[in-house]
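Cross-check.
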Amino acid sequence: MRIISMEKGGDIVAIFTRWSKGIEKMRSVLEGLGSGFQFDDHFGYIHTCPSNVGTGLRASSMILLPKLSEALTPHQLEDFAKKFGVQARGGSGEHTPAGPGGKWDISN
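Predicted model, tokenized:
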């Protein structure tokens, strides 16, 4: 299951607030059905992506980087992003070129 909150603009607080409400609603529904999210006292919330163990949260932003897109290959831009502790995904996902106008998905 993936729960996503998206909007144009830069209101991160509104996006996160809406996402949190969605997660809380889903938790409530699952618990009402006698289920819930998998949780481990040591690892936190268990899900399919090992890079997010314990958080369950990947925050990303679509950003236009036309100059970097012209100067670097997708793999070079991914390596560049790692220096800042973030990941860069191209227009069609990991290891793909930028989307229209040099659009990249940058995430934690």
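The first strand starts at residue 39 and ends at 40. Residues 59-108 form one domain. Passed to J.P. for a second look.
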